[in-house]
Design a protein that fits this description.
With 152 residues, the protein is mainly α. It has seven helices and no strands. 77% of the residues lie in helices and 0% in strands. It starts with a helix and ends in an 11-residue tail after the last helix.
């Protein structure tokens, strides 16, 4: 009887460790499915950002996938940059940090060190979003972006 009690006590004490290890395995598998530029940016996120950083990264990824699925990346590109950064920045310091890391990694992965009007405009949209700007007003209503409202 005593052995059963000790076994149950050990089982209960190690349960959080087992579930944390399983969560870590799932997280690693999901990270491998991400584009390399996102994986590289995520490697710079400080440990203390934890779940907040991952939620912010998810918001950035969702905006990116919405842009790709809409087929309007060329005309509405700045809106999606702004939206992803704004939604990520809602998670406080870590959200803003993640948004900046991912945005910079994306721009660097496509343009390297070269500067262009488009890259500078993308970075301006990123900063505007992180600052809490009204992305819909600035990048949809005042431009030729014909994005359906369900993607706003």
């Amino acid at each position: 009887m005593m052995y059963k009690a000790i076994f149950l006590l050990c089982l209960v004490a190690t349960e959080p460790l087992v579930s944390m290890a399983m969560e870590q395995q799932v997280l690693e598998r999901e990270k491998r499915a991400l584009p390399s530029w996102i994986r590289n940016a995520l490697s710079f996120i400080p440990w203390y950002c934890g779940a907040t950083g991952l939620l912010a990264a998810y918001k950035m990824l969702k905006a990116y996938l919405d842009m790709r699925s809409s087929g309007l990346g060329g005309t509405c590109d700045k809106y999606f940059h702004c939206r992803g950064n704004k939604e990520a920045a809602r998670y406080g310091y870590c959200g803003r940090l993640v948004a900046r890391l991912i945005s910079d990694a994306r721009e660097f992965s496509t343009a390297g060190f070269s500067h262009s009007r488009d890259r500078d405009a993308d970075q301006a949209a990123n900063r505007y979003g992180r600052g809490g700007g009204d992305c819909v007003q600035r990048y949809i209503k005042s431009t030729q972006c014909s994005l359906p409202e369900d993607l706003w």
